[in-house]
Automatic annotation (TrEMBL):
This is Flavin reductase. The keyword Oxidoreductase applies. Belongs to the non-flavoprotein flavin reductase family. InterPro entries: Flavin_Rdtase-like_dom, NADH-dep_flavin_reductase, Split_barrel_FMN-bd. SMART domains: Flavin_Reduct. Residues 12-156 form the Flavin reductase like domain. The keyword Transferase does not apply.
């Protein structure tokens, strides 16, 4: 890796993010991958972006199915985030998911929220594939502290939650 790539990696590790699990289906079974590259990009129409390593099984599945789900994790779901990030292992997610949207999407149980998207656009960028999803269905659950990721560690949004949601 070049010096610039190393420093870029270190720099982006200093951007604290929320943590999501992107859900899809592999062999007819729920599959989840941990993703922090997720953001909203438009409200009219509602569009969301995720960026996935192109060689991930999830990327292939989403290309095929033309839809995906995004569950935003709460701070008691580090185990789910770790399960979705284990390199080189199958990420069948029955243990962590149930159905949402009349059985049309797999969501992570007890996540803060789950957003179901239809693929609207795909952009290949370097070694990643950017999916822009048109939001078709949203389930917002109980408000809890979010799971955060910073400098290769999981953590919490301490104390400030009450102020932030007012
Ligand atoms: C906090 C966190 C955030 C991540 N964000 C992304 C991401 O935005 N896009 C991505 O492709 N991989 C991301 N990953 C890595 C994937 O979760 C991981 O590479 C993948 O699960 C490895 O699976 P594979 O060996 O089956 O390819 C992230 C991992 C962690 C722990």
């Amino acid at each position: 890796m070049s010096e610039v790539t190393d420093l870029f990696k270190e720099s982006m590790g200093r951007l604290a993010t929320g943590v999501t699990v992107v859900t899809s289906e592999v062999d007819g079974r729920p599959w989840g991958v941990t993703v922090s590259a997720c953001c909203s990009i438009s409200m009219e129409p509602p569009l969301l972006l995720i960026s996935l390593f192109t060689k991930n099984a999830s990327t292939e599945a989403i290309m095929e199915q033309q839809r995906f789900g995004v569950s935003i994790l709460s701070n008691d779901q580090t185990n789910v985030a770790k399960a979705g990030a284990k390199p080189g292992t199958a990420k069948f997610f029955e243990e962590f998911t149930d159905f949402d949207h009349d059985g049309k999407t797999h969501r992570v149980k007890d996540a803060l929220t789950h957003v179901h998207c239809k693929v609207d656009n795909v952009v290949v960028a370097g070694d990643h594939t950017i999916f822009i999803g048109l939001v078709e269905h949203v389930t917002v659950s109980e408000m809890k502290q979010p799971l955060l990721h910073f400098h290769r560690q999981f953590g919490s949004f301490i104390d400030e939650l009450e102020t932030a949601v007012k």
